Amino acid sequence: MSTTDIQPLIEQLNNKASAKRRSAAKKLRKLKNKDAGPALLEALKNELKDKRTWETQYQMIMALGESGHTDGLDFLQQLAKQDFEATMLYVAIGDSTTRLIYLMENSVHKAIIQMLSNTENPLFSDGILRAMAMQKIVPEEEDINKLLKFADSIGTPDNNITWIASASAGWHKNENTISFLEKHADSENQQTKKAAEAALKKKYIKWSIL
């Protein structure tokens, strides 16, 4: 779709009603149109002024990542350092940041692994790893080892481990992947167990996310 085709949705991002703005962002998120990127970035900057509309902010952040508008990366990285009452925003920021970095570098080696190492925010990590799983990213072997080691450092199974297990469906080339998955196929966390069992069969789960 051209800019002309998506213009009504771009204009709707400035609607007075938050529900209308959110609806436009969700539709643009599905369309994955790069031409929508600049408008989404500007709309997000305005939306962030009102903490009550966090659901709309979430959808705008996700749409920005899906649009592939890499000029928005610096702004998202700045957002990751801010304090939000609506902590789900960190998941969206991590997700979209990862999509944009991977689009630019086609690798997780630098920024993505570095982000995981430097953050103490499990929700931000959740977003990073979720994007990797949803995009079926297969890192280099060295980076797979780092990701598996990161999972082992977490301890109690949580969303981070679930997403790593899900993403590793395509990591069977690494000798450590199978033992990792076999371990978590017995997890008490049903989501982790489901992800690990599917990944052992080299199957990616079609997750339904917000």
Notes on the protein architecture:
This protein is mostly helical and 210 residues long. The chain contains 12 helices and no strands. α3 runs antiparallel to α4 and α8 packs parallel to α10. The longest helix has 18 residues. The protein is elongated. The protein starts with a helix and ends in a 10-residue tail after the last helix.
How is this fold's topology laid out?
Elements: H1 3-12, H2 18-31, H3 37-47, H4 54-67, H5 73-79, H6 88-105, H7 111-118, H8 122-134, H9 141-154, H10 159-167, H11 175-184, H12 190-200
Helix pairs in contact: 1-2, 2-4, 3-4, 4-6, 5-6, 6-8, 8-10, 10-12, 11-12
Short characterization:
This protein is mostly helical and 210 residues long. The protein has helices at residues 3-12, 18-31, 37-47, 54-67, 73-79, 88-105, 111-118, 122-134, 141-154, 159-167, 175-184, 190-200. Helix 1 packs antiparallel against helix 2, helix 5 packs antiparallel against helix 6 (88-105) and helix 8 runs parallel beside helix 10.
Give a short account of the largest sheet: none
Overall, the morphology is elongated
Strand content range: under 5%
* Protein structure class: mainly alpha
How many extended strands? 0
Q: What is the arithmetic mean of pLDDT?
A: 94
Q: State the helicity in percent bands.
A: 55-70%
- Topology as H/E string? HHHHHHHHHHHH
Spans where pLDDT lies below 50 across 5 or more residues: none
Query: Gyration radius, to the nearest Å?
Result: 18 Å
The termini sit apart by 24 Å
Number of DSSP helices? 12
